[in-house]
Structure to design on (320 residues):
């Protein structure tokens, strides 16, 4: 429908109406700003508006700031929809004939613009924060695996380091889609993202990982009281969940010890994992059994640790 001069007049009246409004039950800064950029969107999309501008820049800018400050997206969209609702009521009350239809179409385009722009800004900001956190966590894992001091990293990242960890060497086989010509790299990335997402719920936010599409290392904070119900831990059930997410059967070797022993435990578990894979053993979780602590005054003995599976308690020989 072609918008005539009367519709242009209605859009101007709508802009005048939106400008002095006050928010209804919405925090002032959000209400004021959303009202401003709803008005800006109306001005941009109204008849004879200047073309070539995709969106009012204040929408994305304000939404990004609110995302950083922790303002809920629901609050922002509720405030936007409050203004949109008021605009529709104004059009219905002051428009006549075709002007009502043209005005409603204008308001719907404004609704689409502000909703999509604000939502996209929130998603982009959260992706940026997630990437920054992932980079910081991977830097911390690398330092722990290398046996380096992490005090400064902990201060910079705000990620707490536990006194002990369950160190898990993880092997992720190729997904069938990775063997398809031209689709391998994308399929591998999707598989890795599924595994990383699946790790978060059972192991908690304090678990650290350094993974590629082929596997890597996961560090799970070890509870000082192992008997506590619900303590995060890599178990056969958790590994089964990860296998389901990856859509391929995973193999893992786990050992638990003090944080200072992470480099030693990581080397041992990955060596055992390589041996298990070379021996073509069944996928699943294999646990490293710790040797008994030596009595006071007795020299520690070098012990080749046996490995057992958590699935059926099948003991693997010391050569594994």
């Amino acid at each position: 429908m072609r918008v005539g001069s009367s519709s242009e007049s209605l859009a101007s009246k709508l802009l005048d109406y939106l400008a002095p409004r006050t928010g209804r039950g919405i925090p002032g800064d959000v209400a004021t700003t959303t009202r401003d950029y709803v008005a800006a969107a109306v001005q941009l999309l109204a008849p004879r508006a200047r073309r070539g501008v995709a969106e009012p820049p204040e929408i994305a800018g304000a939404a990004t700031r609110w995302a950083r400050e922790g303002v809920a997206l629901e609050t922002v969209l509720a405030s936007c929809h409050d203004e949109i609702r008021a605009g529709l009521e104004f059009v219905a009350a002051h428009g006549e004939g075709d002007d009502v239809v043209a005005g409603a179409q204008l308001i719907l385009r404004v609704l689409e613009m502000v909703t999509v722009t604000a939502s996209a800004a929130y998603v982009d900001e959260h992706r940026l924060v997630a990437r920054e956190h992932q980079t910081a966590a991977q830097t911390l894992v690398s330092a722990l695996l290398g046996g380096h001091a992490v005090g400064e990293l902990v201060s910079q990242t705000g990620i707490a380091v536990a006194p002990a960890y369950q160190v898990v060497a993880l092997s992720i086989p190729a997904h069938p889609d990775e063997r398809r010509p031209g689709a391998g790299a994308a399929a591998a990335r999707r598989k890795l993202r599924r595994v990383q997402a699946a790790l978060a719920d059972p192991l908690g936010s304090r678990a650290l990982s350094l993974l590629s599409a082929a596997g890597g290392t996961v560090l799970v904070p070890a509870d000082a009281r192992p008997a506590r119900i619900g303590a995060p831990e890599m178990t056969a059930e958790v590994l089964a969940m990860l296998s389901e997410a990856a859509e391929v059967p995973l193999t893992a070797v786990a050992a638990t010890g003090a944080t200072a022993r992470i480099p030693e435990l990581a080397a041992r578990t990955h060596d055992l994992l390589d041996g298990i894979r070379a021996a073509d053993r069944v996928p699943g979780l294999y646990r490293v059994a710790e040797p008994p602590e030596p009595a006071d005054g007795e020299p520690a003995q070098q012990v080749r640790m046996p490995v057992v599976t958590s699935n059926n308690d099948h003991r693997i020989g010391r050569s594994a």
Observations:
- The longest helix spans residues 98-145.
